[in-house]
Amino acid sequence: MITYLNEQLAKALVTIITLGFMKEQYITEDENRRTRFQYDEPEMPPEYFQVEQILHDLGIVIDFTRSESSADFPLILGKPPRSPEDPALAVARSFPMVREYFDELDALSNQLGGEAPVGAYIGGTLECLEREGDPTYRYRIIGPTNMVTYDPRYAFRMFDEFNRTALEVGKALSVVQEGWTRIQPNRNEVEYLINDEIIDLGPRRPTLFGCIHGMIVAMLRFPGNEETPIHFEFSMGPNTTKVSSCVPCSMFMSANGRPATSTHLGRGDFWNFPNQHTDPVTHEFLYPNLDEQKAAWAQKILEWYYEGLDIIVDHGFMNNHAGIFPRFAEPITNDVTEIPQMFLEALTFPGQFTYKIIDTFAPYLGR
User: Fold this and answer.
1) Which of 104, 176, 251, 288 lies at 20 to 30 Å from 49 by C-alpha?
2) How far is it, in rounded angstroms, from Cα 168 to Cα 114?
């Protein structure tokens, strides 16, 4: 059993689950139910070539491609499986409604220069209100990443990323709010839902913290149905260049029937869920289907974990003591429902997913 996570175990656990996820994406034929794995550099980075070879040796053929640039198409989309209209086309038709506002956010970020927020993805939803004749749309701007703190169960460690992350989150929120005071679109077409739970510290500061990305907040607040809404993230400013979801976001989106248009293998540090809150006006839950959506995610994490284990076993790594995989030969916990929580805490060890995979396989490959 694994009763605590160190960096090596955390990388291996993340790698195993990611292998299961990527294999599922590889064998899924329905384009509306899978994502694309992409990079944002002009040429494919060397670490992507290394991951591509590792995956190929495991029988997973992923065609890494270059993503859209933030200048050409700054939105990451969650694809409703039965959307009556192509999500990208809906965005192209409706984006003029919010272009001035998003341009203002970019301008404000650029004014900060090197101090512009990093990883500033602004979540929201796009909904078609009328499809007859000229379609009419409504945008909801929900805001940037927020944070939550919690007590660890497996990753008992201290680190200094809290203050840095809180600073970036606060800067992004300030830009979003300042942009809204300067540029206020038609209130019948665009709604801004201020996120005043930006850092949910609770009564004290525990060891660990989590980041709730804008896309996830949007999906939890407005889960919708198989047709609507389209969930999105806007990549804001010069220090936020990827037009792709991180792997943890993409996993949650796929588990809940909204696969990301694009997924990168960069960082997904501290990814987590918000605590449930009550709307102060309506007194209804802010995240109406939080338990159901989290349960769907947890079930898929378990499936991907066991699929990833099968891949490791089938290729002879489980009995090879050159690396860490033999630690997973026996059940890692007496309660398999703990594995999703272990995954969340494994994400508190920062680093790109490419290097988590490469570092985990390196002892076996002589690299």
Assistant:
1) 251
2) 12
CB atoms within 10 A of CB 292: 11
Element housing 65 (H / E):
strand 65-66
pLDDT(158) > 80: no
Task: Name the E strands within 112-213.
Answer: 121-130, 136-143, 146-150, 190-192, 199-200, 208-212
| Greater pLDDT, 175 or 69 | 175
Cβ-based neighbours of 99, under 8 Å, separated by 6 or more: none
pLDDT tens per residue, range 281-334: 888 999 999 999 999 999 999 999 999 999 999 999 988 888 999 999 999 999
- DSSP state for residue 244 in the 8-state scheme: S
156-164 long-range CB contacts below 8 Å, 24 or more apart?
156/4, 156/207, 157/207, 157/348, 158/207, 159/348, 161/269, 161/270, 161/350, 162/205, 162/209
Task: Find the angle CA(71)-CA(143)-CA(186) to the nearest 5 degrees.
Answer: 80
- Decide if 38 contacts 66 (C-beta within 8 A): yes
To the question of pTM greater than 0.90 for the whole model, the response is: yes
β-bridge pairing 121-130 and 190-192: unpaired
In this prediction, residue 169 carries a pLDDT of 85
What's the confidence (pLDDT) of residue 365? 82
Q: Which two tokens stand for residue 308?
A: 């990833």
State mean pLDDT over 138-147. 89
Q: Rounded distance, CA 17 to CA 305, Å?
A: 4
Helix (H) or strand (E) holding 247: helix 247-255
Angstrom distance (rounded) from CA 356 to CA 173: 30
Q: What is the DSSP letter of 36?
A: -
CA–centroid distance for 163 within its chain:
21
Q: How many Cβ atoms from other residues are within 10 Å of residue 291's Cβ?
A: 11
Instruction: Label residue 139 left, alpha or beta by phi (over 0 means left) and psi (-120 to 50 means alpha).
Output: beta
172: Cα within 13 Å, side-chain hemisphere: 32
Examine the pLDDT at 194 and tell me if it is beyond 80.
no
By the 8 A CB rule, do 209 and 148 touch?
yes
User: Given this model, what pLDDT does residue 180 score?
Assistant: 85
pLDDT at 220 > cutoff 70:
yes
> Measured at the alpha carbon of residue 110, what is the angle toward residues 109 and 116, in degrees to the nearest 5?
50
